Amino acid sequence: MNGRHPPSHRGGGGGESPPRWTRALVTGASSGIGEAIARRLAGEGTGLVLVARGADRLEALRGELERPTVPVETLAADLTEASDLSRVEARLSASEHPIHLLVNNVGGGRLAVFPESGPEGEEGWIRLNVVPTVRLSAAALPRMRESRRGTILNISSGAGLQPSPYAAVYGASKAFVNSFSRALREENRRAGVTVTAVCPGFTETDLPRRTGFDVAKVPRFLWMSADEVARGALEAAARRRDLYVPGWANQLAAVLARHAPTGLVVAFVARNTLSLWRR
What we know:
- By secondary structure, the chain is α/β, with parallel strands linked by helices.
- The chain has a single domain, classed as Rossmann fold (3-Layer(aba) Sandwich).
- The protein contains 10 helices and 7 strands.
- The chain has helices at 32-44, 55-65, 82-93, 118-129, 131-147, 168-187, 207-211, 226-238, 248-259, 262-276; strands at 23-27, 47-52, 72-76, 101-104, 150-155, 193-198, 243-244.
- It is globular, with a radius of gyration of 18 Å.
- The relative contact order is 0.13.
- Mean pLDDT is 93; it is low at 1-15.
């Protein structure tokens, strides 16, 4: 296989097509979008390296997904801890059983008036949302370039498409992920490596509730399932897209954020965030 990763097909007399990627490393793999991506990749026959903090949940997921044609490794790691991050970097740079798809899917934040968490707390969100994406991409890229084959899929957020009052650090850190992804994409354009950033909106995971949204107040049409986001994200990566926004409502918001006056956009985001904030 080369770096173009043709779409996967199933069934149809001629047997199964090969997976789009031979082996993927997925962070935040024990729940939410990361778990949904892992399940979809396993269904396509992609071998997996699953990374998350909870060893028990990782092993349970491994038991569900692993089969003779789909090897599954697990790495229990807190990516805000330097020693744990180094272990995952070592796996990405290993020559044996190389990684062809890196899914950076760790992140978090909470609604607050900056700097409610204090300097150390706010820095902690940056260490979670930014540092692993940078470090793990740096670990994966040399081998991907050498083999002229590889994909990096960064799960960002719609909050990174414009300034996000009451989620200032979260939105800014995700804006970093978007900019970083597009820059890496251009740098690797001729090296057989592609980079895609995905900017979901409200997704049916634990994150909106943990962030501080009153999920009961969020209109139904704004929600997407984790599997819907995962399906679209993997298709966007396979099609070598630079940035993908899942869902028509989120896509409309992204267009308005790009073209409307910034002051109006920021004021609109602030009002709507306040209306949905569980305090």
